[in-house]
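tool=predict chain=A
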Amino acid sequence: MLGFGRGHVAIAAAALAVVLAACADHGGHPAASPRVEQGPDFVVRNVKPNPLCFGLSALPEKFVADGAPVVADNRYAAKLAPDPVQRERDFRRWGRLTGYVARFAFNPPSSITKEERQELTDAEIREREAAVAREIGAAPFIGASCTVDLYRNANGASRAFAALTDDLRNPLSLGGPEPDVKESDAPELGAESAAIGQESPGSKAYNVLFRTRNVVAKITLVAPSGKDLATAGEELATAVYDRFYSRLERKS
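tool=predict ok
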């Protein structure tokens, strides 16, 4: 991991797992009424999705990449669904072409490396762990992820957006208590958008999703309980929205 205290790693990992594992198409939940977007879809065939997500420069100091980013094919994107085979079929039916997932984590300045832990006294370790807890408490959030998915057309992207929002409204049970799910006002980005929070004891995740034309994005922030993540989530989602329009061409 990144040198967090074990308890703090568990908070972030549990909250992220709730969100990233919620990938089933439960069906039956109506899509939000889309806003009208004039003009053609984006040209996305053979487009590399990597530049469409934000990077470390968009995040507060002391954030680091949490593993390597992934260019996500349909199998990868479907693997956490309760029925991965069916979700992969759905992706093909909806015209999903490719996607990208980037994850980031806060690395507290007082984090203890394995080498340091062997050399420090118990008292020094407790002091450093207390400092880590304070740093995590002061950070605006401790985990972030950006997911973008490219589709052949807006209709397929809209169906995928409806499934994804339904996934987050009905998260998978991971053996612990079910998270408390709460929707809030979403930023008006693109044709469809949603803001869905998931809170478990000690941790919370906040998701901002939007679909504009034939692309879908999901921004997830993770923090200890009690943090307000709405402003930061909207800012990062807006940055991704702006990237779509500055880096993708429109069909003629």
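The mean pLDDT is 87. Residues 6-247 form a domain with the Protein Transport Mog1p; Chain A fold (CATH 3.40.1000.70).
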